[in-house]
Amino acid sequence: MSRDIVLKAEDIHKSYGSLKVLKGVSFEIKKGETKVIAGPSGAGKSTLLRCLNLLTKPDKGRVWLEDIELTNPSVNINKIRQKIGFVFQEFNLFHHLTALDNVMIGLRKVKKLPKEEALRRAKEALLTVHITEDLWHKYPAQLSGGQKQRVAIARALAMDPVIILYDEPTSALDPQLVGEVLQVMKELARSGVTGLVVTHEIGFALEVADEMMFMYDGRILEKGPPKEVVFNPKHEITRKFFEQVGRLYGERR
């Protein structure tokens, strides 16, 4: 595999009983790229993300992170997962820990860093996502949704991942808080942090994504430059989807 390729998925399938959720998904991401996955609910987008770091085990197919095949049974997946950041829809912060401690815990428990080094990296990550010192010792219940999601991004960033996977990171936020999270994601993308983003935020995709992949019924129906996929799609299903999302996007803005 090329040294430039950070993540590669090949023919990923996943079913739950008789329901086929993923039906042969293949793609790759190069270092420094930001790719966006869009599509309707039930298309398999979140399941695909979870298959990429084996939080959900694919029924068929292979996944590589750099030159390591994650789907090889002999691989220590817990060790390799340290290199994959994951930002969830619902933040997944520890409610009994402060913002600072939420970022530090992985550095201490997983990477086994000394407290001083973990503290330094956690503070650096929080500042990168614009969580200022006055918020470091607050608990999640004391933070806004946007602040909580930025802490979650800082937690992923502090682990120094080779890629960050974002699973609809703004879907649980009030509309007025979406912008602050998207701004941080844009800054990370422009700084060269490799990212794969499941989102309906068309503006984000148009502004920073290198490629958009449109998923429908468990497959990647089409992919290409975001402007081409959004404004000049090849498939009627894609066109109808973006017309509908565009109306909602315009109304909210």
Reconstruct the topology from this structure.
Elements: E1 5-16, E2 19-30, E3 34-38, H1 45-52, E4 60-65, E5 68-69, H2 77-80, E6 84-87, H3 99-109, H4 115-128, H5 145-158, E7 163-167, H6 175-190, E8 195-198, H7 202-208, E9 211-216, E10 219-224, H8 226-231, H9 236-252
Parallel strand pairs: 3-8, 3-9, 6-7, 7-8
Antiparallel strand pairs: 1-2, 1-4, 4-5, 9-10
Helix pairs in contact: 3-4, 3-5, 4-5, 5-6
Oligomeric state, counting identical vs distinct chains = single chain
**Fold-level CATH name:** Rossmann fold
The total of helices stands at 9
Helix coverage percent of residues? 25-40%
- DSSP E strands, number: 10
CATH architecture: 3-Layer(aba) Sandwich
Total of domains: 1
Overall pLDDT level: 92
The top-level CATH class is Alpha Beta
Low-confidence stretches: none
* Secondary-structure element pattern, one letter each: EEEHEEHEHHHEHEHEEHH
Query: Kindly, what is the distance between the CA atoms of the first and last residues, rounded to a whole number of angstroms?
Result: 42 Å
Strand order across the largest sheet: 6-7-8-3-9-10
Estimated share of beta-strand residues: 15-25%
Integer-rounded radius of gyration: 18 Å
Major sheet: size, sense and barrel closure? 6 strands, mixed
Shape, per Cα inertia axes: globular
CATH homologous group name: P-loop containing nucleotide triphosphate hydrolases
Helix/strand structural class? alpha/beta
